[in-house]
Amino acid sequence: MNNRRIAFVRVLGAIVLAAITTVAIPGHVRAQKLQGTPLRVAILADMTNFDPMQFSLVNFHLIKNLYDSLIEYTADGKAVPSLATEWKIGEGNKSVRVTLRKDVLFHSGAPLTSADVAATLKKASDPAKGKNVYATMGIVQDWTMPDEHTIVINFKAPVPERQILDLLQFTMPIEAAGIDTVETKPAGTGAYTLAGRAVGQSVTLKANPKYWRTGEPVSPEIRFTVFSDDAAASAALESGAADIIYGGGARSAVRLRDAGYTVTRGPGPLVQVFRINTTRPPFNNEKFRQAFNYLMDRDGILRVGYAGLGEPVALPWAPASPASNPAYLKEFAYNLDKAKALLAESGLSKQEMSNWKLLVYGTDQPTVVISQIVQSTLAEVGINIQLDVLEGSEYVKAQLAGDYSATFGGVGNVQKFPSRVATNSIYRTKDNPVLKEPHPFPDYVAAIERVNSTYGSEEKVKAAYDHLNRVLVTSAFAIPTNSYDVGLIVSSSKLDGFTPDMDNLFVARTIGLKK
């Protein structure tokens, strides 16, 4: 993209931003203030299966409607009871004692007991069956069941409180009798039960008449319909054929909001990260990498790539993360003079600095646009690179194998316990597909371990987070640019009662018509 077009794109981004006002998450509306109505929800991809441990984006519309967690987080990260009425962390942070509610039934009618939680933990601890929850179980040694409504989880070593809470929030009990068939038949305690599915087309849920939360769910039925793309889903909402779009794009969300629809954003966004393969020149040069802390026009990237929905960030944390620190955004603001100074310190020639390609996910339009912005910015400091645009599975294969010099890619699990970031490929401390073994940044590995082993006073915990942050910007193997929304909700203005979820999963039990 030439400089004239980049200038146009940046002006367009400024216009888009000017049309955007702050979007706040609506407060929880009590059930008695709303009227139940069947909900018609447009989604953009079909589900994979009904296993809550298959924690994939395409299942986010179902998980928290079919299942409940042991605990939940409020939008600001406070832990609150759910299926667990209380939890007590043991001496030395080596265990947690969880007390279960006594009035909860599975969809089958069987009562929730500690045996079901134990069966769920056993599944989660199996590398083949635990799926996305398996890594979280790495801290668990074993568990005991003192009685039918109490389970004690023991850890391999002392565990920070926040990491324990994340385990409890991520644990969604599956009925023990339904473990083996959970992929095809849900076995949860959630506010809705499965009423029907047409593969590739729709999923219908109906209200659970024995749900344990009083007055919930508000609406008697949810029908999720799969649409081919964002434009088709938007047309359905505007024509009245749908009440809600879940998981659509930022640009269409802004357009619909300006047309009078409600846009609801949650506290669990992804973070866009410029991922760097430090095993390849010129990125094996530390000063060259560090220059990219200042070469990212984060405000421009957010405006143009994501219609301003999100936050510029210089660290890989969503705003709700306890490790988030806005001061870094000021310290590493877009600054070509500082970038040029570091490039000069690198000792590399212009030819050496230009001898690489930026891998681009051509299927994702925001990634294409922000890659073009970076290409233009680099040209301003004398670095001329080409974009290597790959589509679909071809890109995914290259990205997962670390077969690139640099590329943009979103990372998740960045709003909870900080070391959860290491579940993402570029941030892995072991078996890193990009940075390889042995890990080239031992200070980063040690910083993650320090976070994982620090508990007690807030001062000690904060110091561990601050140390990790400083190591991240110094090593500069990944340069965060902005948060962006996954699980955006666009809805008719007649609906209310949306409950924010820490992972931006769709929670339908409190949604209804305004009276």
TrEMBL record:
<feature type="domain" description="Solute-binding protein family 5">
    <location>
        <begin position="79"/>
        <end position="414"/>
    </location>
</feature>
<dbReference type="Pfam" id="PF00496">
    <property type="entry name" value="SBP_bac_5"/>
</dbReference>
<dbReference type="InterPro" id="IPR039424">
    <property type="entry name" value="SBP_5"/>
</dbReference>
<protein>
    <submittedName>
        <fullName>ABC transporter substrate-binding protein</fullName>
    </submittedName>
</protein>
<comment type="similarity">
    <text>Belongs to the bacterial solute-binding protein 5 family.</text>
</comment>
<dbReference type="InterPro" id="IPR000914">
    <property type="entry name" value="SBP_5_dom"/>
</dbReference>
